[in-house]
Amino acid sequence: MATDVKVPTLGESITEATIGQWLKKPGETVAQDEPIASLETDKVSVEVNSPIAGTLSEQLFKEGETVEVGAVIARVGEGGEPAPIKEAADAATNPAGAGETPLPRGDAHAPVPESPPTEHADLTLSPAVRRAVLEHHVDPSAIKGSGKDGRITKDDVLAAAKSKDSSPAQTGAMVEAKAPSSTPPSAPASAGAQAAGNRTEERVKMTRLRQTIATRLKEAQNTAALLTTFNDVDMSAVIEARAKYKDLFEKKHGIRLGFMGFFVKAVALALRDVPSVNARIEGDEIVYSNFLDVSVAVSAPKGLVVPVVRSADAMSFAEIEKAIAEFGKKAKDGTLTIDEMTGGTFTISNGGVFGSLLSTPIINPPQSAVLGMHRIEERPVVKDGQIVARPMMYLALSYDHRLVDGREAVTFLVRVKEAIEDPTRLLIDL
């Protein structure tokens, strides 16, 4: 008797997800609680585990299809129950039974090869990894996966592409093999057709996370009265403090002393003077939070995510740095939970790590403000009547003008600037 595998509850307000990747194929044995599929939700990737030990007999949806919470996506046969492998494979490829010819997993637009598939055709690759393999012309069977259960990640593909030293002839051959040709199979390909084959396009369905990012950012523009205020800050004092204490800090706490701890502390200090920056609008009411839950923007393989450092105003420098480092690792591995992504009263985004000089960040609704950090570079400034070089950083505060007035936004940004340029203020609460 087969047991249904259902989409689990995914969190508050999340009613559907997308089949991101099948981790098991029909006919393969699975252990109890072993992941058999990965779902992409609005916020994170969630693995679906097998409720029993047995054999995966059916996949009822294809990768990329949308499923609702509670929907049956697969069936697992108990113990050694034989699995209808052919039927299950057909159901996974064509659940609607439309009579379409199943296509190989590697490329949905490629014709079925006459020769047996190569070794790497059986590898389970996510859409993002598959796209990277095609773009960089690497052999996935030769890549050692660093992801969970040895799965290949996009970073693994990029690393393999970087280390690969292929000749121009090899690269050209691979491009020609991947590029579709308009010339009929029976006719020889002309030089013009080969040249046109290098100008290829690829259509990739947006992930649910990317769709949600697009929707929420556009919603913020349509709803909030967005305005951005800028300032610059001299990073000399923070750089000196880090240089002086970084070794002792890492030896004692096991984590590097970064810039984010200083900025989180500076934001917490500034919010005491300007609490509206940490507030939000609900209907015709303003909700003021007497705590600081900082959403820290982190780059992940599938897009930007914002895990929440809760009660950051009550945390030490070491606790803040450890929390952010852990979130960064989880984002890279795709193991962030929905609870870790939910909430947040204020956002800090550090575009400087990618080299950004200046930007106008967009708020993360229902929050009312976001602080953008940028790269540090030496610039000429006037100090005591002298032109000197100083490591400067531009700060940008984007805010909802419906709630935060210009005077309050400027005051907040000046308080942050003062705390960064004189970190002693963080210790004596000024």
How are the SSEs placed, and which strands pair?
Layout: E1 2-6, E2 16-22, E3 29-30, E4 35-40, E5 45-49, E6 54-59, E7 66-68, E8 72-78, H1 85-93, H2 127-136, H3 154-163, H4 168-178, H5 191-197, H6 208-223, E9 226-234, H7 236-253, H8 260-273, E10 280-282, E11 285-287, E12 294-296, E13 298-300, E14 303-305, E15 308-309, H9 317-333, H10 338-341, E16 346-350, E17 369-373, E18 377-383, E19 386-400, H11 406-421, H12 424-428
Parallel strand pairs: 12-16, 16-17
Antiparallel strand pairs: 1-8, 2-4, 2-7, 3-6, 4-5, 6-8, 9-19, 10-11, 12-15, 13-14, 17-19, 18-19
Helix pairs in contact: 2-3, 8-9, 8-11
Task: Give an overview of the whole structure.
Strands 9, 12, 15, 16, 17, 18 and 19 form a seven-stranded mixed sheet that branches. The relative contact order is 0.11. Helix 2 runs parallel beside helix 3 (154-163), helix 8 packs across helix 9 and helix 8 (260-273) crosses helix 11. This protein has twelve helices and 19 strands. The chain has helices at residues 85-93, 127-136, 154-163, 168-178, 191-197, 208-223, 236-253, 260-273, 317-333, 338-341, 406-421, 424-428; strands at 2-6, 16-22, 29-30, 35-40, 45-49, 54-59, 66-68, 72-78, 226-234, 280-282, 285-287, 294-296, 298-300, 303-305, 308-309, 346-350, 369-373, 377-383, 386-400. It folds into three domains: 2-164, OB fold (Dihydrolipoamide Acetyltransferase, E2P) (Beta Barrel), CATH 2.40.50; 166-205, no CATH class; 209-428, Chloramphenicol Acetyltransferase. It has 430 residues and is of the alpha+beta class.
